[in-house]
Specification:
The chain contains 7 helices and 5 strands; from the N terminus they run E-E-H-E-E-H-H-H-H-E-H-H. Helix 1 packs antiparallel against helix 3, helix 1 runs antiparallel to helix 6 and helix 2 packs antiparallel against helix 3. A 3-stranded antiparallel β-sheet has the order 4-3-5. Strands 1-2 form a two-stranded antiparallel sheet. By secondary structure, it is mostly helical. The two termini are about 35 Å apart.
């Protein structure tokens, strides 16, 4: 318990001459090219991780914009056609006496996606710049982003269920709007962005300094 929070004494696997398999988590000596348990290629750090993170992040963000501008749901009755965006649909549900469902949709379709964009961007920036947020907190943030990613699709599930249930031919029908496709793509690309992030890079920054390997090399040159 006395060592809790003292990150200056934390040793990474790279410093100990070890490399872990990202698929089965088995640890091997550094330099081992292939995991003997599952056959996955081993690498201490994914050199292209940040490039893929930002590429998926940008595509996901670009898809999220039309997802909020175009109608998510189209309701056709005998005399009228009503189209609702994500926020507009939540407001309609609130007016019809379903504040709980409206709140769930706003949280899952607006708050969580925006928070994920901000969290992934922060994590990607924090591994190349000094951050005041501790490594443990950033690792926890990454795990939370990974866990809640699947729940962002709840709006799509609601649209799919309503579309399948309300089909009364010419009397009434509910169909997905154009925003549903963009929203699904946005969720998929943000999930790919989070999965592309190599969380091991978080632990390369010790006590607010850059990569430990670079630090050790610099200190050796200084000492010399």
């Amino acid at each position: 318990m006395e060592l809790a929070g003292k990150t200056e004494n934390v040793k990474s696997a790279r410093e100990l001459g070890l490399v872990a398999c990202t698929r089965c988590t088995k640890v091997w000596p550094a330099g081992t090219e292939t995991c003997g348990r599952c056959g996955k290629h081993l690498e201490s750090r994914d050199s292209t991780s940040l490039q893929r993170v930002w590429a998926y992040w940008i595509v996901g963000f670009l898809c999220y914009i039309p997802a909020n501008m175009y109608p998510m749901l189209q309701t056709r009755t005998l005399l009228t056609v009503q189209e609702d965006t994500i926020v507009g649909g939540a407001i309609e549900l609130f007016h019809y006496g379903s504040p709980g469902v409206a709140l769930i949709i706003l949280i899952a379709s607006v708050a969580i996606p925006v928070a994920k964009f901000l969290a992934i961007a922060f994590l990607a920036v924090s591994v190349v710049r000094v951050s005041s947020i501790s490594m443990h907190q950033r690792q926890l943030l990454y795990e939370v982003v990974e866990y809640i990613g699947r729940w962002s699709m709840i709006d799509i599930f609601v649209v799919a269920i309503m579309s399948s249930l309300v089909q009364l031919n010419t009397l009434a029908a509910i169909t997905p709007g154009r925003a549903s496709l963009f929203f699904a793509l946005s969720v998929i690309f943000t999930m790919l962005s989070a999965q592309a992030f190599d969380s091991r890079m978080i632990w390369d920054v010790q006590s607010g300094n850059p990569d430990t390997s670079d630090n050790s090399a610099t200190s050796d040159r200084t000492a010399t």
